[in-house]
UniProtKB/TrEMBL annotation:
Name of the protein this chain belongs to: ABC transporter substrate-binding protein
Keywords assigned by UniProt, alphabetized: Signal, Transport
GO biological process, one term: peptide transport
Pfam families assigned: SBP_bac_5
Length: 536
């Protein structure tokens, strides 16, 4: 039998993966532990969740689980990224600052207690902004009054117009009867989402169960288990070995041929709103010079990286917003791959190459992900070709993110996984949101970008409720940021889900959340054939 060269390459690649896996587990015995989860639907994560309270959960892994445990008045975790009503039956904005809300009459917390106006009031009004580590921190401060009309109806009046407030209503509602009197809710997480909490084993495993009284109907997945597997090869082997049902955006694109060659698995790839970027510390002696940042932007061959590292599963980005976003501005300054122009800019900036060809050196901090490190090393190689010597330094996630939040870096790459509401620009680029070593939660302006015009635009964008005027505001924001380069925009990576063959009903969301699990039919249920009828 003749084997096609493509299939031969795939089998060789699988053999290499197996060899790498064996070598990795010999150094890390815990990596090889495979626990039989029975009939549970197992989702593999590449990073640990950091809390399951919707008010304080800021990591992407936490947000993915929180969205299934806790329901908000609305949700942005939808197939097209559009806002949908969830716990609210109706929301009527009767003025720029007044919101009249009516709750559904069939919504319950997982202990059977009805969700009422009092729970929403508690969640919104008792939100301690000193503890919150996300854009929700300002929610309580924005509300002038919260008027409870009855158990299902209330009116929120803001101190001033705040255009993103409808999106802020996606915050998961927590039960007043459990949480009142505590900074954080005690005991097991209690929400009104499609799945209820069962157990958590450290930061490596979370088990949920289907909630019988979920208002959209009981999920078909009875037991849902999230397991953290940090090793790239171990995640792939879990899929190939039938010990996992779903991995999303955690299998390196170069490994996808192995997946595609397996009759046990299926893949799904869709465009996303995820935004990957190169960030600079603008107080760095060299990187504060905009000409240097422009040279770096010209020196990076983003198309080659997408082709060779992502197998084409990403799109070039011009800024934080994807082309499908309602506020996307296409007409911005772009820095195409042009090494000669990069060298010219550096010469003009006074950074002539030395005898060894090196103009200056930079540290490039990244996480310990093997795939991200290989991508960073390729960027470093490209920068080296124009005379910028780059030292790639990778760290365990906790250490790495601590340094980034403390602004202890020169250059780094990260990803915003859920760019739906453009008010995120304010959290990232307003000068009020520059963190410090003493206050890492001040905001996400970790590069210390300062621009008075940007500050004014972002404040106006939050207050403007007219969609056309708001679009014009963010159009100018995108033009300024593309020109001044506090970030080099890299790409929007596709959402890539790998599922067990036979799984039905799954869809990806632009923000890469797991909303679809409430309707998924697991393979072991989808493949059950009805008993044939027989004549008595």
């Amino acid at each position: 039998m003749r084997i096609s060269p493509f299939r031969f390459v795939r089998r060789a690649l699988l053999a290499l993966v197996l060899l790498a896996f064996c070598l990795s587990v010999s150094a890390c015995p815990s990596c090889s532990q495979q626990v039989d989860e029975g009939d549970a639907f197992v989702v593999i994560l590449d990073a640990s969740p950091k809390g399951l309270d919707p008010r304080f959960a800021t990591s992407d892994s936490s947000a993915k689980i929180v969205g299934l445990l806790h329901a908000g008045l609305v949700s942005l975790d939808t197939a097209n990224g559009d806002r949908e009503l969830r716990l609210a039956r109706t929301i009527e904005q009767t003025s720029p600052v007044r919101y009249e809300v009516e709750l559904r009459d069939d919504i319950f917390f997982h202990d059977g207690t009805p969700v009422t106006s009092a729970d929403v009031e508690y969640t919104y009004m008792e939100l301690d902004s000193e503890l919150v580590r996300s854009p929700f921190a300002g929610l309580t401060r924005r509300i002038e009054t919260f008027e409870v009309l009855d158990a299902r109806r209330f009116v929120i009046t803001l101190k001033e117009p705040h255009a993103p407030f409808m999106s802020d209503m996606a915050l998961g509602i927590v039960p007043r009867h459990q949480c009142a009197g505590f900074e954080e809710c005690p005991g097991a997480p209690l929400g009104a989402g499609p799945f209820a909490f069962v157990s958590q084993q450290g930061d490596m495993r979370v088990e949920l169960r289907a909630f019988d009284d979920y208002f959209e109907g009981r999920p078909a997945i009875d037991r849902l288990v999230f397991k953290v597997v940090r090793d790239d090869n171990a995640r792939l082997l879990a899929l190939l070995g039938n010990t996992a049902d779903l991995v999303q955006n955690a299998v390196a694109p170069l490994m996808l041929p192995v997946v595609e060659d397996s009759d046990r698995l299926q893949t799904m790839s869709t465009p996303s709103f995820k935004y990957t970027y190169l960030a600079f510390n603008l107080e760095h002696e060299i990187l504060k010079d905009q000409r240097v940042r422009e040279a770096i932007a010209h020196a990076i061959d983003r198309e080659a990286i997408i082709k060779h590292k992502f197998r084409g599963a990403a799109r070039l980005s011009t800024g934080m917003l994807a082309p499908e976003h309602w506020a996307y501005e296409e007409d911005v300054k772009r820095f195409e791959f042009d090494p000669d122009r990069a060298r010219q800019i550096l010469d003009e900036a006074g950074y002539a190459p030395g005898a060894d060809g090196v103009r200056f050196e930079l540290d490039f901090k990244i996480s310990a992900s093997k795939f991200r490190r290989s991508m960073a090393e390729l960027i470093a190689q490209q920068l080296g070709e124009v005379g910028i010597a780059v030292r790639v330094r990778s760290y365990e996630w906790g250490t790495f993110f601590h340094d980034v939040r403390s602004r202890n870096f020169a250059m780094t790459t990260l990803q915003w996984p859920s760019v739906l509401e453009p008010s995120l620009y304010r959290w990232i680029f307003h000068s009020d949101n520059i963190p410090s070593p003493d206050n890492r939660a001040a905001g996400a302006n970790r590069g210390a970008y300062r621009n008075a015009r940007i500050d004014a635009l972002l404040e106006a964008g939050d207050k403007e409720t007219d969609p056309d005027k708001r679009r014009a505001i963010y159009s100018e924001v995108q033009q300024i940021l593309a020109r001044e380069l506090p970030y080099v925009s890299l790409w929007h990576e596709d959402n890539i889900a790998v599922l067990r063959q036979g799984t039905e009903g799954y869809y990806t969301t632009p923000n890469a959340r797991f909303d679809a699990l409430k309707q998924v039919i697991p393979a072991h249920k989808a493949n059950i054939q009805p008993t044939p009828e027989v004549q008595p």
